[in-house]
Amino acid sequence: MPHREGFACAGNWIIDHVRLIDHYPGEEGLAFIREESRSTGGCAYNVICDLRAIDPDLPLYAIGVVGEDEDGHFILDDCHKRDIDTFQLVATSEAPTAHTEVMFSQASNRRTFFYNPGANNLLDVAHFDFDHCLAKWLHLGYLLLLEKLDQPDPQFGTHAGRVLQMAKAAGLITSVDLVTAESDAYQRVVVPVLPQVDYFIINEIEAERTTGIKTRSDGALLKDGVESAATRLLALGVNRGVVIHFPEGGFAALKDDSKFWQGALALPPDKIRNTTGAGDAFCAGFLYGGYHEWPVQQCLEMGVCCAAGNIGVAASSGGMAVKEANFALLQKHACRM
User: Fold this and answer.
1) Phi then psi dihedrals of residue 188, to 5 deg
2) Residue of 286, 121, 309 lying closest to 203 (CA atoms)
3) Which helix (H) or strand (E) holds 281?
4) Average pLDDT for residues 259-264, to the nearest whole number?
5) 70: CATH
6) CA-to-CA distance for 135 and 85, rounded, in angstroms?
7) Which of 135, 155, 156, 177 is the right S-S partner for 161, CB 3.0 to 4.6 Å?
8) CA 317, chain centre distance (Å)
9) Is the pLDDT at 318 greater than 60, yes or no?
């Protein structure tokens, strides 16, 4: 097999139009927009940009579909500036670049998304070429938000399952993320691909909807539920580890039954501007540690530091620093758990 280095990030490439609003109104209500920005959006785009910020020298490969439009050109130009290989980031005239209107409420610190999937829905098995892509690790997301990859496959559950099998056959490590969808498709789309997944990195709500095991009650995190959900996901086929993140921190369970908890950094309110992209930032931090075979606890620490860095900016990414600067946050802030 060829020598492999770095990450391929595949899946959702989105432009986020982020609106910071004073509160989220009811229907026919009025809210004031306090700040606006355009930024990276979607799992593949956010994670690959975060990885680049963590390590300027890491080989990175983009895989996906964008439109032949202003937003698509913005994404391609942005990747070129970041020294990201775009050979498999295809521009098409068949659909516009995916975009999301993100409403972030100052009153509640919560986000609401209005999404146009556009060209993301065209990504399929034929777009993946692991002979050209010499990455060591494939990160794919978000399942449940990729129309063709979520379609059934008679052998590997879904088209995404076939892609993941192709990656593993070529010698890559695989990881997967989901979107938090109001959907009954978790059992149909997610569960069948788990035997092709090495690391499953999701939030507590996605863990609950995939397994049926409650992870929150009256707003409180159920630690026993988080552990039980992770154990269930490993039993369903995840090969190496399940990583679950949540506002309070992160948790990892490995195939050898070892378990690890890590609290989020306790940031002062004036350091919290936007939680959009925090999950992807956590994911990038954990992935970077896993790639370098760090101890799992250190991977979780990197994850919560990266999430904390991104919370301080108004966009979906852009708060990330090089790895040493991320870890320095541990010396400045206490942990919540």
Assistant:
1) -80, -35
2) 286
3) helix 278-291
4) 96
5) 3.40.1190.20
6) 11
7) 156
8) 11
9) no
